[in-house]
């Protein structure tokens, strides 16, 4: 039963959301959630009561996996699912999703890594999917180890099932006090940020194509062993399928392999001067590695900015191996095109530099793909909508 306070808070939040929309200041989700929580600070747990909730967190792939999991869960249960649609993954955005009417029993929410402990407390989810932990933009979430420690201190009970990629030593560590863990392994990968053990700080032994440590981290066998050839989006789909099954969805084996084969990747096609340019969003070293591995065209545009959410510090460029670009025509653009060009030239990769995205496409010709940092990607999206001044990361 709804409390009177929650009813007032919901009304106030909705009014603020509508006002924000009418004023043309976006979709009004964040303001709706903020006003709700200002009027009723305990609204989150009230809105979450009697609902079956899944949270999705990790450094890369949260938005895509949340949408994918919501669809798999809806199809596999024949029920509607309430879910985050625009990547709003902090308290106010999550509150806004929970306010939506009709309020479905099943809920799939994207959750920022640092907000996960608070959301776990407030929402009492049934399942939490932990995709991966890697270095994000340096200025934002800081150390991977800090988040792994935070999570490890959070998940000490048996009231939730964690679904994790156990090949990530940070996730194995984060889950090692949790009562219920479904470990999925793909095998044969290394974690670029995990030379030492998150649990005891000794060097991890990676010689077997897996990690091992004298303290015992990594010795628990995975319940699910999946194909080691799967790429990042496909691996996240496997985790989503396991989470959906835990929530009661029926996902037959043949359907699961179809879903994995068609795993959604974050590729947008942008038309620039009559050329269609498949463009991947990459915002930290791990997503750059994934994006580079997916390139098939012979001409590649790299658009790097260091603005706002990108972070000013581009030292992460040095943590990525660019060898998939060898033998291709590479054009660097964006505000920090010279940083990118210098980094690639050190690795012996010939590059050209273009003053903006349109010029880069001119140099590249038709067989072209692009990788863009966050704001460069946003600029391209804005340019497609005809918003002036957005030309793919001009400095
Ligand atoms: Zn250890």
Largest sheet: 7 strands, parallel
Structural class per helix/strand content? alpha/beta
Percent strand: 15-25%
Give the radius of gyration.
22 Å
Overall shape: globular
- How many domains, as an integer? 3
Structure, briefly:
With 395 residues, the chain is α/β, with parallel strands linked by helices. The protein has helices at 4-22, 29-39, 43-48, 62-77, 91-99, 116-123, 144-154, 169-174, 232-246, 253-261, 285-293, 337-346, 357-364, 374-384, and strands spanning 52-57, 81-83, 106-110, 127-130, 161-165, 180-185, 224-225, 267-272, 275-281, 299-303, 329-333, 351-353, 368-372.
Notes on the protein architecture:
There is one protein chain. With 395 residues, this protein is of the alpha/beta class. It has 3 domains: 1-41; 43-261, UDP-N-acetylmuramoyl-L-alanine:D-glutamate ligase, CATH 3.40.1190.10; 267-384, Mur ligase, C-terminal domain (Protein-Tyrosine Phosphatase, Chain A), CATH 3.90.190.20. 37% of the residues lie in helices and 16% in strands. It is built from 14 helices and 13 strands. It has helices spanning 4-22, 29-39, 43-48, 62-77, 91-99, 116-123, 144-154, 169-174, 232-246, 253-261, 285-293, 337-346, 357-364, 374-384, and strands at residues 52-57, 81-83, 106-110, 127-130, 161-165, 180-185, 224-225, 267-272, 275-281, 299-303, 329-333, 351-353, 368-372. Strands 2-3-1-4-5-6-7 form a 7-stranded parallel β-sheet, sandwiched between helices. Strands 8-9-13-10-11-12 form a 6-stranded mixed β-sheet, with helices on both faces. The longest helix has 19 residues, at 4-22. The chain is globular. Zinc ion is lined by residues 197, 199-200, 202, 213, 215, 217.
């Amino acid at each position: 039963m709804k409390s009177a306070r929650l009813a007032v808070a919901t009304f106030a939040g909705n009014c603020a959301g509508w006002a924000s929309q009418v004023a043309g200041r976006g979709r009004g989700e964040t303001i709706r959630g903020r006003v709700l929580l200002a009027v009723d600070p305990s609204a989150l747990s009230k809105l979450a009561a009697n609902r079956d909730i899944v949270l999705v967190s990790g450094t890369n792939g949260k938005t895509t996996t949340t949408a994918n999991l919501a669809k798999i869960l809806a199809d596999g249960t024949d029920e509607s699912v309430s879910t985050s649609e625009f990547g709003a993954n902090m308290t106010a955005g999550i509150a806004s999703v929970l306010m939506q009417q009709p309020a479905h029993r099943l809920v799939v929410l994207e959750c920022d890594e640092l907000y996960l402990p608070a959301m776990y407390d407030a929402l009492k989810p049934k399942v939490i999917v932990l995709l991966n932990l890697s270095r994000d933009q340096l200025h934002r979430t800081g150390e991977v180890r800090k988040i792994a420690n935070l999570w490890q201190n959070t998940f000490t009970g048996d009231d939730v099932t964690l679904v994790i990629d156990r090949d990530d030593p940070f996730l194995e560590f984060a889950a090692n006090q949790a009562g219920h863990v479904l470990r999925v392994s793909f095998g044969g990968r290394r974690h670029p940020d995990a030379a030492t053990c998150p649990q005891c700080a000794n060097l991890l032994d990676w010689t077997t194509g897996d990690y091992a440590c004298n303290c015992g981290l990594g010795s628990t066998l995975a319940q699910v062993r999946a194909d080691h050839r799967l790429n990042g989006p496909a691996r996240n789909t496997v985790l989503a399928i396991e989470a959906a099954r835990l929530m009661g969805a029926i996902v037959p084996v043949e359907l699961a392999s179809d879903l994995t084969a068609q795993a959604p990747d974050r590729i947008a096609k942008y038309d620039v001067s009559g050329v269609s340019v498949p463009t991947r969003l990459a915002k930290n070293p791990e997503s750059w590695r994934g994006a580079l591995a997916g390139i098939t065209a012979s001409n590649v545009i790299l658009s790097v900015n260091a603005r706002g959410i990108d972070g000013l510090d581009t030292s992460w460029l040095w943590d990525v191996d660019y060898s998939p670009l060898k033998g291709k025509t590479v054009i660097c653009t964006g505000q920090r095109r010279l940083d990118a060009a210098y980094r690639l030239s050190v690795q012996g990769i010939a590059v050209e530099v273009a003053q903006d995205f349109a010029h880069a496409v001119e140099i590249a010709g038709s067989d072209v793909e692009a990788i863009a940092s966050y704001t460069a990607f946003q600029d391209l999206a804005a340019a497609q909508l005809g918003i002036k001044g957005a030309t793919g990361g001009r400095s």
